[in-house]
Amino acid sequence: MNDADTIGKTKTAPKTKRPRLYKVILVNDDFTPREFVVHVLKAVFRITGEQSYRIMMTAHQRGVCVVAVFTRDVAESKATEAIDLARRAEQPLMFTTEPEE
């Protein structure tokens, strides 16, 4: 193939679709101590104490709060890790995941 054959022809790159993102949601309960919630948020989601406290208070006041947004596998893994940490401490703390709109 020479240069004359490729003039005017363009290559189209295949379009890759971005993976759907999922929210990890902290669900408020009236039993888990606030300090423990902050500890879990800091340990699992690697966020600061101040951010953890704000997330915990938002969930406390509104019933739920989005903690972070990840791809599906990461979101489910983080939620499971946080729930497991709570269960080992015999706390009813709950996290859920749902697709971002």
Describe the structure.
By secondary structure, the protein is of the alpha+beta class. The protein has a domain at 30-99: Ribosomal Protein L30, Chain: A (2-Layer Sandwich), CATH 3.30.1390.10. The protein contains four helices and three strands; from the N terminus they run αβααβαβ. It has helices spanning 3-6, 34-45, 49-62, 72-88, and strands at 21-27, 64-71, 94-99. The chain has a three-stranded antiparallel β-sheet. α2 packs across α4. The longest helix is centred in the C-terminal third of the chain and has 17 residues, at 72-88. It is elongated and about 70 Å long. It starts with a helix and ends with a strand. The relative contact order is 0.25. The model has no long low-confidence stretch (mean pLDDT 92).
SSE blueprint:
Layout: H1 3-6, E1 21-27, H2 34-45, H3 49-62, E2 64-71, H4 72-88, E3 94-99
Antiparallel strand pairs: 1-2, 1-3
Write a short abstract of this structure.
The protein has 101 residues and is of the alpha+beta class. The protein contains four helices and three strands.
What percent of residues adopt helix (DSSP H or I)? 40-55%
Q: What would you call the quaternary organization? A: single chain
Average of pLDDT: 92
Sheet with most strands: 3 strands, antiparallel
Strand order across the largest sheet: 2-1-3
Summed up, the helix count is 4
